Amino acid sequence: MPDVDRPRAWLLTIDGAPQSYVDLDEPTHLEFEYARRLAHVLDTAAGPELPLDVVHLGGGALTLPRYVAATRPGSRQDVVEADRGLLGLVAEQVPWPAGAGISVHGTDARHWLDAAPDDSADLLIADVFGGSRVPAHLTTVAYARTADRVLRPGGIYAANLADGAPFTFLRSQLATFAAVFGELALIAEPSVLRGRRFGNAVLVAAHEPLDIAALARRAASDAFPARVEHGDGLRRFTGGAAPVREEDAVPSPEPPDGAFGIG
Fold first, then answer.
1. Nearest residue to 48 via CA among 64, 77, 68
2. pLDDT tens-digit profile of 113-166?
3. How far apart are CA 83 and CA 133, in angstroms?
4. Positive or negative CA dihedral for 20, 217, 154, 172?
5. Cis, peptide link before residue 135, omega less than 30° from 0
6. What letter does residue 50 receive in the DSSP assignment?
7. SS3 label, residue 229
8. The whole model's pTM is what?
9. Rounded Cα distance, 184 and 157, in Å
10. Are strands 17-23 and 53-57 parallel, antiparallel or unpaired?
11. Exposed, middle or buried: residue 239 (CB in 10 Å: 0-12, 13-18, 19+)?
12. Are strands 151-163 and 183-188 parallel, antiparallel or unpaired?
């Protein structure tokens, strides 16, 4: 008999900013735009329903791992979340399905990735925020090289980032991953890319050509349409930004008041 006291849908907020939304009855429902954009990367990474080995850095309420389990049965997923208290709360309130191939690790993302085996993941999804900022140690060339080592040939890295004009952080991340990966794309709303507001942008990196056309179609069909930048346009956006060295790393910028608040 179902637990009538357990919520069927759950919104996680941290410091007033929405972080995760889970619908236990419909795990393919993705409430937030950035989550849908990460899902577009997942959906176009391989043929429909083919199982994948996925690493999620940053767990939240395990929204994307639930999505992968529902859309690609048989996938093996590692979820790395440093906040063990949060993991305990999620396990109690909105537990992930048993037998879904999801392994949860309560530790620092960079520490776990440094110890991960070579060529062990098809996709690596980074959605790590300390409060509302991406930690500095997940922004460097050394980190990007570690991600590359863990990915299999043909693997894809995707990260949820946040920035606003003049895009000092976002451009530095593009330069950092361009120093390691041969193919890059950026998915974001046009208003964000034009510098009109602070917002999320999904960075995608790989060695083999990305399915830009499929990504662009999916991003354009969202309720809040996004654009996919790549090639010469993305290089122009990156400009003269330099890759981030360990000694120069800083967290992503603090969002302005109300940037991600709940209305």
1. 68
2. 999 999 999 999 999 998 889 999 999 999 999 999 999 999 999 999 999 999
3. 15
4. negative
5. no
6. -
7. strand
8. 0.93
9. 10
10. unpaired
11. exposed
12. unpaired
